[in-house]
Amino acid sequence: MSAGQELTFRGRDRYRNAQWSRISLLGVLVLVEGAVSFSQLSAAAAGWLVGGTLAFAGLTIVRMRRCRTTVGAAGVTICSDFGRGRTHPWSEVRWVGVHHARGQFDGYSTLQVTFANGRTRSLPALQRSSLYPDPDFDANCQEVIGWWEASTDPSTRFRATGNWLYRRSPEQIGRLVGVGVGVVIVAVVILAHR
């Protein structure tokens, strides 16, 4: 592989194929939250609750669209948020492989890398699920694995055994974080208006 063949996978391209019928369900849930909040809480408390939910959802959408993975001669650059990302040289990468598992609605697949320290990361924008189908997922994964195989010595490779986080999809982790944030927002609103 030459440096001219650097690959970049962007979140905005991946999420273009989203299943909007399922995502619209989230909009309905926000409307229900707003209706229940305004009927049960004061206007200020309901405003904070709904505003916090919308702010969290908006930041999540912006973050998803800005994430990217770049693969090249220097290694793998992972950018999952607003920064430039971090480049991990090939000498730190011990394994690149597709992880398949079952999610809440259906199965999901994600391309993961394991580093020399044993840490495993899912590569942003290289994931496939029923919510975000990607017809090019397998071909993209093969290209990244090809870069890894061409850039590393086989004697330095090992396969990750996996931990609790390794077995969770980014969508499941996002739901857990979302529930945690929601609980904190509700608790703050309720405590502030006692």
Written description of the protein model:
This protein is α+β, with helices and mostly antiparallel strands. It has a 4-stranded antiparallel β-sheet. It has a 3-stranded antiparallel β-sheet with strand order 5-6-7. The longest helix is centred in the N-terminal third of the chain and has 24 residues. The model has no long low-confidence stretch (mean pLDDT 80). It comes from Actinacidiphila cocklensis.
Précis, in short:
The chain has 194 residues and is of the alpha+beta class. The chain has helices at 11-14, 20-40, 43-66, 137-151, 170-192, and strands at 7-10, 68-72, 75-79, 86-88, 93-102, 107-115, 120-129.
**Share of β-strand residues:** 15-25%
Report the radius of gyration as a whole number of Å. 20 Å
> What's the story with the biggest beta sheet?
4 strands, antiparallel
The percent range for helix content is: 40-55%
From the spread of the alpha carbons, the general shape counts as elongated
Number of strands: 7
- Alpha-carbon distance between the termini? 63 Å
The overall pLDDT, averaged over residues, is: 80
Contiguous low-pLDDT stretches (5 residues minimum) are: none
How many helices? The count is 5
- Strand order across the biggest sheet? 1-2-3-4
Order of helices and strands: EHHHEEEEEEHH
Q: Helix/strand/pairing class, anyone?
A: alpha+beta
Oligomer: single chain
Give the secondary structure arrangement, pairings included.
Layout: E1 7-10, H1 11-14, H2 20-40, H3 43-66, E2 68-72, E3 75-79, E4 86-88, E5 93-102, E6 107-115, E7 120-129, H4 137-151, H5 170-192
Antiparallel strand pairs: 1-2, 2-3, 3-4, 5-6, 6-7
Helix pairs in contact: 2-3, 3-5
